[in-house]
Structures are given as C-alpha cells and as structure tokens.
Specification:
Blueprint lengths: L3 H23 L9 E9 L6 E16 L4 E10 L3 E8 L2 E8 L14 E6 L5 E15 L5 E8 L3 E5 L8 E16 L6 E16 L8 E17 L3 E8 L2 E4 L3 E4 L2 E4 L8 E18 L1
Parallel strand pairs: 2-5, 2-6, 2-7, 7-8, 7-9, 8-10, 9-10, 10-11, 11-12, 12-17, 13-17, 14-17
Antiparallel strand pairs: 1-3, 3-6, 4-5, 13-16, 15-16
Length: about 290
Amino acid sequence: MRRPRDRMSAALGRRVLAAVLTSAAFLPAATAAQSWRTVTMSRVMSGEKSLDVKVTYGAGTFSMGPAAAGMLYRMQLRYDEDSFRPQAQYEGNELRLGVESVGNSVHLGKKRSEGSMDLRLARNVPMDLDLKFGAVRADLDLGGLSLTRLELGTGASESTVDISELNAVRMEKATFEVGAADFEARHLGNLNADDIDVSAGVGSVTLGFDGNWQRDADVKVNMGLGSLELRFPEGLGVSLHKDSFLTSLDSEGLVKRGDRYYSLDWDKAKRKIDIDLNAAFGSVKVVWVR
C-alpha cells in the first residue's frame, strides 16, 4: 500500500508534468521571418438567451472584460500569420474564440510573446465560460458578466483574475487549474458561486475572498510546490481544514478547534466559507483585509 507521502509526491509530479506539457502544447512555431497582423472581429447581439463560450490562447498577452452595450463579443488580435490563424466560430449558442496553430511544427521562436488578444464579452447573457491559456500574461476582469459556470486553465503563465462586480446570476461551480504560474484572484466573493475549486502545480498563488457573498460556499484548494496567500475580509466566517506535507501555516486570526481552524467571529458571521486545503510543499499565509 502506498503511503500518504508517496501519494502526495506522485500527485505533485503529475501536476508539474501537466503544467509543462500544457505550456509546450501552446508554444507557437518559429519562422525565419514573422509576419504580424492585427485584426478585429465582433458581433452584435441578436436576442441570445444563453452562451457556451470557449476561449483558447497560447502565448503572448491576454486581456478581457465586459463588452459595450449591444455587443455579443469584440476580439482584437495581434498574431503571426505564418504560425497562427484567428478562430471565431458561432453556431447555435456555442461561441469559440482565440487562435489556432498553422502546421504541426513546434519551436521556441523568441518573438512568441509579442502576440496579444483583447476580448470583450456581452454583459447580460448568461454564459458558461471556459478559458484555456498557455504561456500567457493574462489580465482578466470578469466583473459585469453573467456567469453560470467558469473553468480557467493555465500553463506557465502570469495571470490576474478580478471579479470587480457581483455576478448577476448564481453559479454552481468555478474551477481554476493553474500550472507553473504566478496566479492571483481578486473578489472571489463576487462570483456568486456555491463551490470554488483551485488546483495549482508550482508557483505563487494569491486568493482574495473579498466581495459581496450572497450565500455560504465550499472552497477546495490543492497546492503543489510554492506559496499560497489566503486573503479574507473582516466579517467573513472562515473554517479551514489543512491536510499538508512539509507545508507551514501562518494562521493569523484563526483558532484551532479539533482538526479545523476557525475565524474568531465564526459563530456570529452572516456569511461563511468552508475551506479544504491540501498542500504538498511550501507555505500558506492568512491575511485579513478591511
């Protein structure tokens, strides 16, 4: 029978390997001379009741936010036309956006990071949103969107996700799969989600649980190798269970009862979150914010 330490090490190895393979799969092909193009694609709304949106972007910079009134989406791309072609497909309620590779060769062209994508999505259409990134510097503002489901997956990236406004619809689950990355999520309370799952391989992760919590929620965090900072707003009830191997916990503002840690005002808090934390190697820090 495999010991818990062996299982943790194996799981960490799988997450790190997955991060490397994901990043490599997105790397663009290098050519002797690159030919850069900038294009803008958009579509106006036509009575949509719901959307299933999938976005794929491999390398460069990515930004995202809500679209102007009446717009279903607006996408501006700068890309090497010898290596990529834009993808914008809309059929039924399915919207597919991003870039796809041309050809099968994969090289590490040094100008791979010069590409960019800026995406704006409709504010008032309930949508399932699936985002897949490779070696990307991403800056996302999901505030103002109507998200019924969220899945975000990154490779070797630097990503910031801000839910600057309250999600207008209830979300069953939000999932973040982070590879070898620096990742920060802000205002997670504004997701209006019942469940939040975060899995990280290697890197630095900051999770901000401020925002307008509409109900109690369950949070699962799986951390491989690196540092994790949990930022809680004063007044939010927090219950935390830590299952970790060689991971330190700076549990400021929490008291231990049995096998769980609780915020000082847990019993009288209006909104509460339960966090199950599984960490292999690294450090976990708790910070309270006003």
